[in-house]
TrEMBL record:
Disulfide bond entries: 27-70, 114-141, 209-252
The protein's role, per its UniProt record: Binds to various kinds of negatively charged substances such as heparin, phospholipids, and dextran sulfate. May prevent activation of the intrinsic blood coagulation cascade by binding to phospholipids on the surface of damaged cells.
Localization, UniProt: Secreted
SUPFAM superfamilies: Complement control module/SCR domain
Name of the protein described by the UniProt record: Beta-2-glycoprotein 1
PANTHER family named in the record: COMPLEMENT COMPONENT-RELATED SUSHI DOMAIN-CONTAINING, SUSHI DOMAIN-CONTAINING PROTEIN
Keywords: Disulfide bond, Glycoprotein, Heparin-binding, Repeat, Secreted, Signal, Sushi
Gene3D superfamilies in the record: Complement Module, domain 1
Cross-referenced Pfam families: Sushi, Sushi_2
GO molecular function: heparin binding
Domain Sushi: 25-85, 86-143, 144-206, 207-266
Signal peptide: 1-21
Amino acid sequence: MECKSSLILLCLSVIFTEVISTQDNVCSRPQLSDNIQLEGLQRYFRPGAELALSCKQGFTPISGPLRIVCAASGQWTSTKLKCIPKRCPYPDDLTNGEMYYEDVVYQSTINYTCNEGYTLNGERSAVCLANGTWSTPVPECTVVTCGLAPIPLNGLIIYDRRIRGNSTEFGVQGTYKCRPPFVLIGEARAECTVSGNWTKTPKCQVVTCPPPENIDRGYMSVDEEREYDYMETVKYGCHGDYVLEGSSEIVCQQNGNWSDKPSCKAPCSVDIRGARIIYRGRKMWIRDLNPKKVLHNEIISVFCKDKTRKCGYAVPTQCIDGQLRIPDCFEESSAFGHILHSSSLPSEIQQC
């Protein structure tokens, strides 16, 4: 058999294997548990042959001899050798961040993340190596920084805490203010964000409102035809029996418009000639209501009759800007009948 020099060792192994494989009681290459390894490629061994056992890279031997012998019976002697994964040390804590791992043995992985507002400096993961060390050191989580907050023209910012130097950290907040007579347009509160930038900077500008307009059936507290500054106020009132609905005061807002004006609502005439009513918690004859009107939003009650049960009951109705609807169930008697038969009126009989 001819072999090149680079294959001589392999050829000799094959020849040796062919020779001993024809003999009885030889040992075949042993089947060993996971993570235990043998050197060489030899498949058959004569009785008395010894094999050195070792653990694969990243594993440590425990509980058993490191050699086995081919016995005359063609069986290998037993071994209790076990190879367990090497352990890496538990990692140091990650300040301002979190670590995620299940174990610290060979080939285990640690993943690192930083809390909001912090940046990871270093590798995001580490692997436990065969020599029992981590592939990379624990990274650092450094706080996100912003510069000083931008200052609007004619404005200033008041930080929530003392600031040193020319930078601020994530989460620092402040309040913008404008120098009079300038008005802040935008959000007054500002914050150094996770992106390393401050929230949107507001503006400081002069705000005025046009001269206010009067309201129907009412009057204003001022009569100057001029522009009004931000936050200036004007008061309104109503003439006579008209009732003011809404706020009695309007204010010049930062958008240059006045807040909503109130309105004057009309009183209601009570078109009932002879009956009793309930007004302001008092039961009274309509003739005692002088003048015969109620104000906007006021409620009176008239009496109706349940003809089946022969009893009376009160029904409320409300004055809404000059309109007072008398309930359909109300039946008004004549002035003469009202005097003669007052005891039979719905307001005077037994109440339901």
